[in-house]
């Protein structure tokens, strides 16, 4: 961990846990962090977690360059302060980090990063040079888990469903058929397109049905249930809710 200073890079990467509807503040579950040591209690009695709160009113929003086919997608890929949604994987840079209640760290940059989802294909259709697979997410996935929280600025049409776009260059490491009825894992960038979740998919792997997860499977996410305490962001009363945190690695 580095100290304070202009040369220090403070970066946190992970899923967005909450986007407040009153003030431009979000909470992030930092799977990886680089820079100054977080201040304030992060764990209490091994159950309650505080997440750093970032003020994104002046942040520069961007999209990871990991996928280079964005201009070819049959929808307009967009990531901004007006359509960021809980469950999306992001990288945030900031002057410092803090998990003290009521302390909002100004975010310098917020970049949409690739992530993994697990779900069952329910339909498919051709969409330009892509095949659009409608995927029903596993119940423990972050989008259906976090979207039910009250007081958020973005409402999804169906938080349990993602439109996954696969093309010829998508890396297919699955042994199950990429067809309706198959449970698969998809890795890529997830966008909120006017309330519909759409993924630009870079890689497909075999999925895991139900809650049976393989800890040895490469690039797959392990699931951990915890109770989360929100520190009254935007003047709201502190709330507690049970969420499922999915930890994943990138290919």
Structure description:
This protein is mainly beta. The protein has one domain (11-247). Helix content is 2%, strand content 43%. It contains one helix and 18 strands. The strands form three sheets. Strands 1, 2, 3, 6, 7, 8, 9 and 10 form an eight-stranded mixed beta sheet that branches. The chain has a five-stranded mixed barrel with strand order 11-12-13-16-15. A four-stranded mixed beta sheet has the order 4-5-17-18. A hairpin with a 2-residue loop joins strand 11 and strand 12 (130-137). The two termini are 25 Å apart. Residues 1-7, 39-49 and 212-251 have low confidence and may be disordered.
Concise synopsis of the structure shown:
The chain is mostly beta strands and 251 residues long. The chain contains one helix and 18 strands.
What keyword list fits this structure?
251 residues; mainly beta; eight-stranded mixed sheet; five-stranded mixed beta barrel; 1 helix; 2% helix
């Amino acid at each position: 961990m580095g100290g304070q200073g202009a040369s220090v890079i403070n970066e946190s990467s992970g899923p967005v846990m909450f986007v407040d509807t009153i003030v431009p503040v979000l909470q992030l579950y930092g799977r990886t962090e680089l820079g100054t040591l977080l201040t304030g209690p992060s764990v209490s009695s091994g159950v309650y977690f505080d997440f750093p709160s970032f003020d994104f009113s002046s942040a520069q929003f961007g999209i990871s360059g990991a996928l280079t086919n964005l201009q070819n997608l049959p929808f307009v890929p967009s990531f901004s302060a007006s359509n960021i949604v809980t469950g999306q994987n992001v990288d945030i840079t900031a002057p410092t980090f803090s998990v003290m209640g009521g302390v909002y760290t100004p975010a310098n940059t917020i970049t949409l990063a690739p992530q993994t989802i697990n779900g069952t294909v329910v339909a498919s259709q051709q969409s330009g040079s892509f095949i659009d697979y409608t995927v029903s997410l596993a119940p423990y996935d972050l989008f259906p888990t976090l979207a039910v929280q009250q007081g958020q600025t973005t409402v999804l049409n169906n938080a349990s469903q993602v439109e996954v776009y696969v093309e010829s260059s998508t890396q297919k490491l699955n042994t199950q058929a990429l067809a309706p009825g198959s449970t698969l894992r998809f890795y890529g960038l997830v966008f909120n397109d006017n309330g519909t979740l759409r993924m630009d998919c870079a890689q497909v792997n075999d999925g895991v049905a139900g809650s049976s997860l393989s800890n040895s499977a490469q690039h797959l996410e392990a699931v951990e249930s915890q109770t989360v305490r929100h520190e009254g962001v935007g003047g709201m009363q502190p709330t507690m809710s049970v969420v499922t945190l999915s930890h994943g690695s990138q290919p």
